[in-house]
Amino acid sequence: MSLAYILQDLDDPDFDDIHGDDETGGFAADKTLRLLVSALYASWRTADGAPFLAATRVAVSSGGEKASQAIVAVPDLLLAAGVAPADAWWKPVHRAYRLARFGKPPDVVLDILTRAADRPETHAARHQAYERLAIPYRAVYDPCQLVSAQPITVFERQGERLVARSDARLPRLGLGLTIWRGRFEGRDDEWLRWTDADGRPLATGDELAAYWRGRAAELGAT
Hints:
The protein is of the alpha+beta class. The protein has helices at residues 3-11, 15-21, 26-43, 99-102, 120-132, 205-221, and strands at 52-56, 60-61, 72-73, 77-81, 97-98, 108-112, 137-141, 152-158, 161-164, 169-170, 175-184, 187-195.
């Protein structure tokens, strides 16, 4: 756990109560997830051009068994290539990512560790659930250093296990993750971002729009 995190806990008398009730990660996690999803839809394409599904805080369920026997996990973000949501996606049966319906697990699940509840034993149990769901990649963003001294850890499936990689790459998808310093939605900060196979951050829709406005202005001035 980082020193800054400990000091925040000590300085704020209400921190324990607020932090313990926070199931979402708050404003920072919400904005981080929005950046990640928007960049995928704005700038990423699968190798074969197939559709993909990126979503935040949607349950992943093994399905097919009795409800009491199903393996269920709720990642902060999931990415699945080659799938699309059901037309009637408001119906309860279609609100979760059920492996029995989609025919495959998500290609990536990502978790942001921000709460005291994200202690090592809880983290390990979630990791085991992802292994049982046959997830190819798991990414963990730990900005408060609750579990690891490094902010990003990517796990890749090897056999039946998810094993930590030495880098933050997801080579089967041509993606990676990095910490980027810059401005997003009016805030200058450090952000978790996707990168392409060459390590360049995937642009958001706002960044692409700003780029093309700049190009239009340059062409208009010539």
